[in-house]
């Protein structure tokens, strides 16, 4: 077996042992197809207050600017779909499923570091960096190039027989490997995600205006939530899963096997009244090391009041978080 084939097989086998659902590998280089799309998206201010999306434009399109001598992008998927018994009922305030358990940044970073160390032991000197949604890497583009799925009309990566309820992460390394190829788009004529979005954030198939997304309003936006979206959030107070919940491919979603993603047992039992009266102490207990910490206790209160009153609320002063 050639060294590249041996190394590639080792990486994919070890990734599976670490709990990753899929692993695909593509050759590091400039993302020519994505460059004009990203430029157009930014020029139309679809990033809203997410100014960081406009930073490091060149690095987002070329991983060789992030890792010296980069030759390969290893893309990995980690399932987070919660079992039915953990999922929140529809008649209460809801947080996105990805935030039920421990913050994925910590969980995945640990796995990536282990995988990189294992590669260094097996292959020898390997230079590389781990990326989990916190650096200028177009993760969906690289996962698509490596055949892990296609980018759907809701701009999420979708995998046949799996759906889209997973995290995407990367190892960018200076080792040449055997590369995978992309698969076709299986969205077909379906427009369920486009039709279901309450804020019309999917402005056209495959184009999502981030500044109109419920996830943006409830997580990224630090100002008051604008009056024009009043009454459009349903029960969502942190993130939103609507465009994934209606996607026919997610009928194939299966519960994750990662203990760290297990939801706090009290989460699914909270009524709307419980949410409205949530204390800082309970918030800290429910969302200890959770991604919900990103909006903070005051931010969550703002979102709950907005959804409850269906009226704009000024972002309150953060207290004790």
Query: DSSP helix count?
Result: 11
Biggest sheet strand line-up = 1-2-7-4
Q: What's the shape?
A: globular
Strand portion: 5-15%
CA-atom Rg in angstroms: 20 Å
Q: SS-based structural class?
A: alpha+beta
Whole-Å distance between the termini? 54 Å
- The H-and-E topology, N to C, reads as HEHHEEHEHEEEHEEHEHHHH
Number of strands: 10
Structurally, the number of domains stands at: 1
Helix content: 25-40%
Rounded mean pLDDT score: 93
Biggest sheet architecture:
4 strands, antiparallel
What ranges have pLDDT less than 50 throughout 5 or more consecutive residues? 311-321
Function: Catalyzes the conversion of epoxyqueuosine (oQ) to queuosine (Q), which is a hypermodified base found in the wobble positions of tRNA(Asp), tRNA(Asn), tRNA(His) and tRNA(Tyr).
Cofactor: [4Fe-4S] cluster; cob(II)alamin
Family: Belongs to the QueG family.
Subcellular location: Cytoplasm
Q: Keywords, please?
A:
globular, two-stranded parallel ribbon, four-stranded antiparallel sheet, disordered C terminus, 321 residues, single chain, alpha+beta
Explain the overall architecture:
By secondary structure, this protein is α+β, with helices and mostly antiparallel strands. The chain has eleven helices and ten strands. The protein has one domain (1-310). Strands 1-2-7-4 form a four-stranded antiparallel β-sheet, sandwiched between helices. The protein has a two-stranded parallel ribbon with strand order 3-10. A two-stranded antiparallel ribbon has the order 5-6. 40% of the residues are buried.
């Amino acid at each position: 077996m050639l060294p590249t084939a041996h190394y590639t097989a080792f990486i994919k086998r070890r990734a599976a042992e670490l709990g990753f659902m899929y692993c695909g590998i593509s050759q590091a280089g400039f993302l020519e197809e994505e460059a004009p799309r990203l430029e157009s998206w930014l020029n139309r201010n679809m990033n809203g207050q997410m100014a960081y999306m406009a930073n490091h434009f060149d690095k987002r399109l070329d991983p060789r600017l992030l890792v010296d001598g980069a030759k390969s992008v290893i893309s990995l998927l980690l399932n987070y779909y919660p079992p039915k018994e953990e999922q929140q009922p529809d008649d209460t305030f809801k947080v996105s499923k990805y935030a039920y358990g421990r913050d994925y940044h910590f969980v995945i970073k640990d796995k990536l570091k282990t995988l990189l160390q294992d590669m260094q032991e097996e292959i020898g000197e390997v230079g590389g960096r781990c990326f989990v949604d916190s650096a200028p890497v177009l993760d969906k583009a690289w996962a698509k190039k490596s055949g892990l799925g296609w980018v759907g009309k809701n701009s999420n990566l979708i995998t046949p027989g799996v759906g889209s309820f997973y995290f995407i992460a990367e190892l960018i390394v200076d080792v040449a490997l055997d590369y995978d190829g992309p698969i076709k788009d299986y969205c077909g004529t379906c427009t369920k995600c486009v039709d279901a979005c309450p804020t019309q954030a999917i402005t056209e198939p495959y184009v999502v205006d981030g500044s109109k997304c419920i996830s943006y309003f409830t997580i990224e936006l630090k100002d008051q939530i604008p009056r024009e979206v009043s009454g459009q959030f349903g029960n969502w107070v942190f993130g939103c899963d609507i465009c994934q919940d209606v996607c026919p491919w997610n009928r194939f979603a299966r519960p994750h096997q990662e203990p760290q993603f297990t939801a706090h047992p009290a989460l699914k039992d909270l009524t709307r009244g419980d949410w409205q009266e949530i204390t800082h102490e309970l918030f800290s207990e429910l969302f200890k090391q959770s991604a919900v910490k990103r909006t903070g206790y005051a931010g969550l209160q703002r979102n709950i009041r907005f959804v409850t009153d269906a009226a704009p609320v000024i972002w309150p002063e953060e207290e004790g978080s």
